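Moderator note: this is an archived Q&A kept for reference. The question asked for a predicted structure of one protein chain; the sequence and the answer are reproduced below.
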Amino acid sequence: MKVLLITPDLEIRRLFTQGLPRAWGLECVATAEGAMGSMDAVRPDLLVADQALSGMGGIAFFQLLHNRMAPPPAMVLITPGSMNETAHASASGLKVQEILHRPVDEEAVQRIYAPYRLVDGPLNMSLLEFLVTGYTDMSNRQLDLVASGHKISLVFGVGYLWAICHPLFCARYRSALVGAGFALEPQGEDDLLDQAAVEERLGPSPQLSALKIHTVLSILASIPLHLNFQARIAEVIIPEGLIPMDIPSVVVPLVEHVPESALAVLRTPGLKVRRVQDMIPADLPILPHQGYILSVCEKPTMVQDLIQMGAVPESQILSSLYLLLLLGLLCTEPAVAAPFRLSGLEAAMEDEIQRVRRQTAALEGLVRNFQQPGRSPYDILGIPSTADAMQAMEAYTLMQDRLSPQKIHPEVFRRHQKDIMLLKAKLSEAFLLLQSSYFEDKKEAQESRGTVAGPGSMTRAQAGAGDQKALQKKEAEKMVAMARDLLAEDKHFDAGQCLKLAILYDPLLADAHHLMGRVYVRLKDARAKHMAERKFLDALQLDPRNIEIHLDLTELYLSQGLVVRSRACFNRAQRMDPRHPRVLDLRETVKQAEKK
């Protein structure tokens, strides 16, 4: 594998040199002129050019290369920043594989190198799946495929299919050329060299390319497309003169012939597909209904929903999904490792089913254990009775994280939402009980450390009472801070439990009453609205200059249609700070409510 890097940037040279795989060759030049000289000597497999070249930018150099070399090597462009639409369209038209934006990092370099590594063998894939690996893997190689009496060899390089080796191909190809009026010399001994000599003499033309692709399709269509082949991978030197074939042009007609029985895994309930690539090559030969599926799948979409839409026959939907998945324009949920394989999807779906079963069994076991009478808070949190407050907090946080939607399969979360709420409530209850117990232990420790009063000092009772009050206030503030975080995550129940404990520790803490009012506001029943009003009013008595409380009351009264009360609260807030963002936002809303 030979890489040619065209840039004067020393840091980019260092990154591409450092990440170069073994046995690969890398040549670095600073100018487009130097690159042309290097390419005259040795043709690179991968060309990386900087847009910021002196004299000629990377896109202009690629355009020059297209005019001089057919086909050009795989190309990557490095740009100083974002590109305008014209430059982006030019790069897409030149089939630039990827555009790197500065600053370039090691991960980006490895991403560029990855498609060119040889596929590890042996592999078991269908013929179509092997064909598409040639579209994504840019290395030169020959795949010798064998399955159930069928043998065929595919020659790949720089993302193209160059030739197939099959007993019937040469005869059919020469017959097609003669039928089209091309004069041919006698056939040589080596089929591949003979084919290269014929194509070099006739020269590239649309008619020749069409005849070659038609002959290849006639051979491939006679082989079961869903049959899994065993592949042996070998390095190959592509003879000069061969005309490459665009792989999607071969795959798109073939995919319609895959039997529905082979695509049955795509009907699996719960399977989703989504679009993963915004920029679709303009010359990609997909059909209109395939473009329609791409537009529908901008967000994750159930395959069953696509079928039920009825806009496209089911057989066409399944074959089109298979094609778009092969080309990497769609991906599945659950994900399948590249290259996409139907057998890989089947394995991923089975893993998904097993994951649902495991999580369901674990949740049901937790519910049974938590509902057993007489279980201590330590047992519920899974910690020893000697654990301290920090260990209890860590265990509580870990259990809550395990029950979060990010860690539970969506299907399990949907089926067991009530069980999960019950488990979270039990965990919160156990945690708060332990917090209260730790607080009592601290209070007793503070009292036991009281000293005998001396001249001009507090008595032991006074010192103990002062320490206890400060400790309670500190614990209450901790609970309020925790409640704020829980509210930010929409965990209303857990926040309410923390606030109840905070009010128990310090009944005069205005923030605790205020946040408890916000918890009640988020509940839907009428009684909760009444409780929210009470808590806001309690908070106002403790902190009458808090503008946020006045504004929360304004919004509460507006939601209940109590316009006069909302105006009174709003006026008080407006007098405190007429330029407050929430005051400005609510001003027009209050006026509109009064007009009604």
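Archived answer notes: The longest strand covers residues 150-157.
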